[in-house]
Amino acid sequence: MPLRLKETLPVIEKLKKENIFAMTEERAQHQDIRQLKIAVLNLMPDKQNTELQLLRLLSNSPLQIEVTFIRLVTHQYKNTPASYLLNNYQPFYQIENKYFDGLIVTGAPVEKLEYEDVDYWGELSAIFEWAALHVTSTLYLCWAAQAGLYYHYGVRKSELDKKLSGVFSHTITDPQSELMRGIDKNFYAPHSRYTGLNKDDILSSDDLTIIAESDQTGVYIITDNKGNVFVNGHPEYDLYRLAEEYIRDTDKGLSPDVPKNYFPDDDPDKEPVSRWLSASNLLFTNWLNYFVYQITPYEF
């Protein structure tokens, strides 16, 4: 079913080329249907690639989805032209009196900073507070998952010895969770981060449940008793994203490790292997269905 997007969003043409159903706002207005309203706070530097990754996954739902991209006003964007943000992203103050069925908050390359040292931490905290009253369910990804768990529940993060990059096997620890319906007990997911979560902090909270974890990467998916989902990784990554990051860091002279379990024989000259896309699609579809659509009121 279709995604409802602003006509100015450049990724519409890319989605159409991938045979993904995306309709303009004008066409959607002629359909008598209650579409889901999903807001996306995109904190990643490469806005268009992240948009494309998320929209692919959202498009697999049988529901019509209206997507609103949000921008921060307390942060200066270095990698995205102001005109692009002005045309395609709404500042938070323009939507703070509105209600949404779901919110997605992406990761951000600020893991090594203390949360309070992130220049937009105050505005982000305000969005976390706003979401608790204006959003049915929030899906936090990677750094956002760590930040959300810290802000709401005091869960600490710890810096890893080196960057965790690659595709790793995970095990479902709560098979009764609707979030995991249809996903194999052992499934793969990509990671690209410098920090991890303190598992003891999570276990000490009666409000949090660990849904999936890995011996290699630690706690992966957590839910709270308010219907929010924290994913400590990058299920939205497409097939080539880890390769692009590896090439980028190599070109910068950072001598990164080859992403594990990603290239055949760990040879970066070979085509990456897809291991996680089906599980990621199910994860997003289950979130939209069981944590959003089945819960959200028909009328706000």
Report what the structure shows:
By secondary structure, the chain is α/β, with parallel strands linked by helices. The chain has one domain: Class I glutamine amidotransferase (GATase) domain (Rossmann fold). The longest helix has 17 residues. The model has no long low-confidence stretch (mean pLDDT 91).
Which helices and strands, and how do they pair?
Layout: E1 3-5, H1 11-17, E2 22-24, H2 25-28, E3 36-41, H3 47-58, E4 65-71, H4 82-88, E5 89-91, H5 92-95, E6 100-105, H6 121-134, E7 135-141, H7 143-153, E8 157-172, E9 186-197, H8 199-203, E10 208-214, E11 218-224, E12 229-231, H9 241-251, H10 277-293
Parallel strand pairs: 1-2, 1-4, 3-4, 3-6, 4-5, 6-7, 7-12
Antiparallel strand pairs: 8-9, 8-10, 10-11, 11-12
